[in-house]
Amino acid sequence: MTNGRVLVIGAGPAGLAAAAELGRLGVGATVLEQASAVGASWRGRYDRLRLNSSRWFSNLPGQRHPRMGGAFPSRDQMVSYLEDYARDRALDVRVNTRVERVERDGDGWALRTSAGELQAEQIVVSSGYAHTPYIPDWPGRFDGQLLHAAEYRNADAFRDRDVLVVGPGCSGMEIAYDLVEGGAGRVRLAVRTPPNILIRSPIGPLLARGMMKLGPRRADKIMPLVRRIEVGDLSEYGLPAPEEGIFTRLMRLGVAPAIVDKAVIEAIKERRIEIVGGVESLDGSGVVLSDGARVEPDAVIAATGYRCGLEPVVGHLGVLDEQGVPEPPNGDEAAPGLRFIGYLPGPAHIGLMAREATYAAERIAAAASA
Question: Which of 285, 302, 319 is the last residue in one of the domains?
Fold first, then answer.
């Protein structure tokens, strides 16, 4: 690896955008991807998945989504978009190359990888905020089928079965609806903390960005009215409006609202998706809930989120907070020659990552020419 070259870790939207922007500015970059193809996290998600943000707000630098994808491109359309993006820009992507550890090496960096040791003066880490599936360490054991939402593809394997989905975020609510539509015998959604809910809308990202300019406190005073108009009062179904507003929670915890279609809300109101308490423990053939109730599903699908999974790679460098999120997460240097992009929560996340990629690339190019 020649001196001055930049290594980008991760061939998802953020990593591909960073490499493309570096190339546009005349800086050579190689992307290291542990999977066998670009866009691996998108390839592995459930069949029904679509972008929550409309395509107009989800473009990578220099390339729009095809119109044929509609307002909200599907999982497969997103994969095709990323493949086209990497090919059209002739990006140097090294697949099947897992980065195991990053170490300081003089004025540059040494990376221990599955393909051997590599050196670079600059590193951009973009392996993804939702990188490593997370299942809480619930007490006890469950004798039925227990899987993370990352392993769920469609409802075929759950036809006529009793399924408990844990977690009321975007994935949890959408998977619950997919199960109902796909013929599951019974579907319950375990909820510990009621979510903020938004209806998927083509102009949603534009409105969200405008609201964020008001500041979390002022924006959160407006959102209850939006919820009443679009979602209604779901208290009698087990989903009261949370006390903490959308933007306050987003800024404090990095937790995005559940963005769903109206059909999901209708399924809850029709009680085809039953809302139950959060999971307290596992009990052989059953699951004990926070209200003391015990249910006996055939399968439990944990839509309980992801972690960045960066501790083995950069945890020893002092650049992660207590939740394992890099600091800073927005393309600024965390250490000389080390940047992270794609870890800053916000509306229209892919569009946000694109702006971070441009920002980071411009600063790397400026440093290279200094």
Answer: 302
Among the listed residues 347, 365, 256, 316, the one whose alpha carbon sits nearest the alpha carbon of residue 56: 347
pLDDT of residue 275: 98
Maximum separation of any 2 CA atoms in the chain, in Å: 65
Decide: residue 87, CB within 10 A, 0-12 exposed, 13-18 middle, 19+ buried: exposed
First to last CA, the chain: 21
At residue 188, the pLDDT reads: 98
8-state DSSP, 305: -
pLDDT surpasses 50 at 1 = no
Peptide bond into 194 cis (omega under 30): no
Structure tokens at 213: 């300019």
pLDDT tens, position by position, 4-13: 589 999 999 9
3-state SS of 319-334? CECCCCCECCCCCCEE
285 & 315 share domain: no
pLDDT tens, position by position, 46-100: 999 999 999 999 999 999 999 988 999 999 999 999 999 999 999 999 999 999 9
Q: What is the DSSP string of 193-254?
A: SPPPEEE--TTHHHHHHHHHTT-HHHHHHHHHHHHHHHT--BGGGTBPPPSS-HHHHHHHH-
Domain with 175 in it:
133-302
Candidates 168, 140, 147; CA nearest to 282 is 140
**Cα gap 99→125, rounded to integer Å:** 10
Q: What is the amino acid identity at position 66? A: P
Quickly tell me which residue has 């591909």 as its tokens.
16
Task: Give kind and range of the element (H or E) at residue 183.
Answer: none
Q: How many domains does the chain have?
A: 2
Tell me the pLDDT tens digit for each residue of 268-306.
Answer: 999 999 999 999 999 999 999 999 999 999 999 999 999
Q: Compute, in degrees rounded to 10, the torsion defined by CA atoms 149, 151, 154, 159.
A: -90
Whether 146 and 290 map to the same domain: the answer is: yes
